[in-house]
Amino acid sequence: MMTWLSEFWGYAEATVEPATLRDCPKLAALHAVSFHRGWDEQEFADLISERNTLVHRLRIGRRIIGFVASRIGADEAEILSIAIAPNWRGRRLSRQLLVTHLGHLAGRGVTKVFLEVEENNQPARRLYDGTGFSVVGRRERYYRQPDGAQLNALIMRRDLS
What we know:
By secondary structure, this protein is α+β, with helices and mostly antiparallel strands. It has helices at 24-34, 41-49, 93-107, 122-130, and strands at 2-6, 11-18, 53-60, 63-73, 76-84, 112-118, 134-144, 150-159.
């Protein structure tokens, strides 16, 4: 568990800790407001229950306001999803969540972390660029939007040491 204080943003305490099965409804709701196709509660329950996954929640007080989920294979991991509640975005909380999560991945022996991000998603790109990820590939027309438009995905990687 990691806790940090910030008077500047007007909250006293934010905590990054392992997600539990009781968190699944809130995690599913956060995913639904953050992505075009949200994951349901059962998908989160399956992730949390798997031995090769790591899911952290971000909590302020008793409110869960974010999460990050990764799947681990050998010495590599893939970040499957990360989200912050809309009214908490822009406060660098996603950076703290991601950096803490990466530390836990390193503690499990992970040396390389991969993710895919929509090429036009500038807030996410800034987060990943700012936390040491670099573009290593591209998938053309990977993401399908509700209106049928297809957007490119960038494959990003960060080495952990």
